Amino acid sequence: MASLQDIRRRIKSVKSTQKITNAMNMVATSKLRRAKEAAVANKPYAEKTRAVVQNVAAHTEGFSHPMLEVHEDGKKLILVLAADKGLAGAYSSNVFKTTHAQMEVNGVEDKSNVSLVTVGRKARDHFRLRGYDIARSYIGISEKPKYENAKEIAEYLIQRFETGDIKNIVMVYTRFVSAISCVPEVVKLLPFEKESGGEEQSGGLRAEYIYEPSAEAVLSHLLPQYLVTVIYAAMLQSAASELSSRMNAMQNATDNAEELIGKLDLYYNKVRQAGITNEITEIVGGANALN
Fold this sequence. Notes:
The chain has helices at about 5-60, 90-105, 120-130, 145-160, 215-290; strands at about 75-80, 115-120, 135-140, 165-180, 180-190. By secondary structure, it is α/β, with parallel strands linked by helices.
């Protein structure tokens, strides 16, 4: 049986940990509010940009652009968005599982046939330790991504794709649903694929645009911008998902610490009562022996 001093030391340690997890919970909650607002505000713009680009693409025939080229040979490049720090529950591990599953679906069993661009220290360390080729990594931007970060990543991806050594590029990120729900998703970035039908408004009406100087010229300008928009939107979604996962993880840790403290207090009282009872028994026994 543990001594009272050992139990008191354990209670003190758990209370100290509880203060830390509670503080991290409050910090994550505060940051989540801003991250959620940014993700929600950006979503309509990202969706509209995608719809407009698809509409323009639907009105171009025989148009050639490096981002539309289909490469028969080359590596698969995966952009992975994860966290810089831990203590975020299963957020990063779910992204890694989805990434490995994406490799298996596409038959990328040979590590030499896949290249990775990672956002977040956790993603970089996870795949580097497993022997994957990390073409480029971005650290310190997972919680507060900026448009300039997305633009830099997009320009690098376009550059790699246009060299011809990359067959296709996909992105694995986490879509923010609510404060308690986040879903890992896979999005194909390059080559850009046209969708039939173009943009439709409510009631099944198709939106029509006048292109100056031409649909081809507009599409040529919009494609790189579209890629930046998609990546930036995913980074905002991932940031909100990371913070919500950390908030929930720290809240659960704080609640578990509270429960453990209650059990330790009960155990402490039992040990203390057992010691008092034992002392009384010894005193009574000694008194009886004197009589």
